[in-house]
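Title: Prediction job returns without error message
Component: structure pipeline
Severity: low
Priority: P3
Assignee: unassigned

Description:
Job completed but the reporter wants confirmation the result is attached to the right record. Sequence as submitted:
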Amino acid sequence: MLAAEGLVELLPNRGAIALSLTEADVLNTFEVMAGLESLSGELAAQRITDTELAEIQAMQFEMMAAYTRRDLSGYYTLNARIHNAISAAAKNPVLGTVYNQVNARLQALRFRSNQDGEKWKRALKEHERMIEALAARDAAGMRDVLLVHLRNKRDVVLEQLREAQAQRGAA
């Protein structure tokens, strides 16, 4: 299953190895993910129920508490749950399946992107804007904030990838 999702390479008689994403892989994957998340957010803003919105707002509150405690692991878990709940609120199972497949390629990279304090703070502000757009049922606003959010994540991940490559080159 991991091989089918492009997360590992199966080597005959040797097992599986995790694939490392190149800069081009990161750019291409985030480009697709931005489209998927923005569409998901747009549809969610149009289709979300009051119950779903309340659940996402509660997770957002918990995520803000994790941020305050500097609990990156807890924050990340809640962040992923919020994004998954937004995807589910879009009520499009085909979109949800493709979203999950592409998102699997980015999970570890998205986690590491919040390790910088200022970038983490910016991501939290973007999440606040997402919740506001959902509550207002503002489909265009939700689409736009998710595009910005994914673009910012992409830029942080690329910066980290380039730094890691420079460090390996210096070693």
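Comment from assignee: result matches the submitted record. Residues 1-10 have pLDDT under 50 and may be disordered.
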